[in-house]
Amino acid sequence: MIFEIAIIVVTLALLLFLHSKNKDSWKVYLITAVGVLLFEYFTQALWFNQNLESWAYLYLDISWIMTLMWTNVILFSIFFVESLRPKFSEVKKFFTSIGIITLFVLAIEWILIRTNIRGYPEVILELYETLPRLFGIVPLKELIYVFAFMSLVVAFTRYWQSNYNLKFDKFKGRKK
Amino acid sequence: MNILLFELLVILVTVGILVYMSKSGHKTVMKKFGLMLVAIFLFQIMSEPMWVNSKLHSWAYLYGNVSWVLTFGWAIIFLLTFLIVDGGFKKMPEKNKFWLYLLVATIITVPAESLIIKLGIRSYADILSQTFSGLMIPLTQVPIEVLIAVPMISALIIPFYKYMAKEY
User: Fold this and answer.
1) What pLDDT digit, counting tens, does each position of A6-30 carry?
2) ipTM entry
3) pLDDT, tens digit, for every residue of A96-136?
4) pLDDT at A44
5) B111-167 pLDDT, tens per residue?
6) CA distance linking residue A98 with residue A93, whole number of Å
7) Of A40-49, B15-24, B70-79, B88-97, where does mean pLDDT reach its minimum?
8) Cα separation, A24 vs B3, whole angstroms
9) Cα–Cα distance between B90 and B161 in angstroms, integer?
């Protein structure tokens, strides 16, 4: 319960903060959440989300709380890069965002596994165990997987931002 | 149809589409093809444990279960989709064309998936097939869930391709 409430509180805080900086934030948030949900739905056979409250689940073991959590990570990372490096080219911003997101995801995933919120089917665990680990800790496949997942979702967000002309690169209060 | 014939056909059709695109005025065709392959490959990396691609020749595999010939196959589906929709609906805004892309990609994929299932090239891992209803698309051996999966796959691959083709 604490985990679920914490995610909801962080989501609201992030939305309020981002909305104070850019009025299109909530629309970009919604687009990103759709991208994350699409991905989660398609790949739901590859993991399970467990031990959450029953109201935290949308369908089978797809949890809207987890959707919010990943969306928060993605949007915060995009905002962080846009704020700190506004003059980066779009491609540089894309890859920098992915890099930051990957770091967050690896840390969060580590916590989720240890708190038993996230689990993997036996066949996936066996696959991870056979693959090399970076610095002896991070399964290489997981790193590549996160990069692949996030690249598709961030590009999804950027594509729909462009279709609806939603600017997420101009923030109030940023020094010129 | 034997497997070698299938593999060669996929390669030939891919080359044919690329030649057609070059000759019909499309710009930066090889860049677009490369980006499409990257988009599909990203998807294949993460979904690899969900299916089994077998019976192809060893040279047709990149690693594990991931076949570059099937990657080309997906590229054919998406490139054909863009040719059909962009060609037939030139004035439609991108956000509306997106839904047509999903529809056309699904329509093209169903017979293609049916063919590779019939040839024994494609089957589904237990972790995925356990979630199936058991219903098939009529006249095929394709699980009905493909009608949901393909639009979802396309909804992630197409934006990546379109975004990268524009920005890179």
Assistant:
1) 999 999 999 999 999 888 999 999 9
2) 0.91
3) 999 999 999 988 988 898 888 988 888 777 777 777 776 66
4) 83
5) 999 999 999 999 998 888 888 899 999 999 999 999 999 999 999 999 999 999 998
6) 9
7) A40-49
8) 51
9) 19
Give how far Cα A112 sits from Cα of A101, A136, B19, B82, B91, Å.
Answer: 16, 20, 49, 40, 47
- Closest CB to A159 among B43, B47, B163: B163
- B131 contacts in A (CB within 8 Å)? 44-45
DSSP-derived secondary structure for A64-118: HHHHHHHHHHHHHHHHHHHHH-TTS-HHHHHHHHHHHHHHHHHHHHHHHHHTTSE
Alpha-carbon distance A144 to A54, whole Å?
31
B3 in Cβ contact with B56 (< 8 Å) = yes
Please, how many CA atoms are within 13 Å of residue A175, restricted to the half-sphere of its CB? 2
C-alpha B40/C-alpha B119 separation (Å) is 22
Sequence-distant (≥ 6) Cβ neighbours of residue B43 within 8 angstroms: A148, A152, B153, B156, B157
Name the token pair of A30.
């919604």
Beta-carbon contacts of B80 under 8 Å, excluding residues fewer than 6 positions away, are B17, B104, B108
* A41 contact B CB<8A: yes
Nearest by CB: B50 against A41, A46, A156:
A46
Domain ranges of chain A: 2-163
Cα distance between residue A115 and residue A96, in whole Å: 29
Element (H, E) at B15: helix B3-23
Residues of chain B neighbouring A46 (CB-CB closer than 8 A): 46-47, 49-50, 127
Give per-residue pLDDT as tens, A152-169. 999 999 999 999 999 877
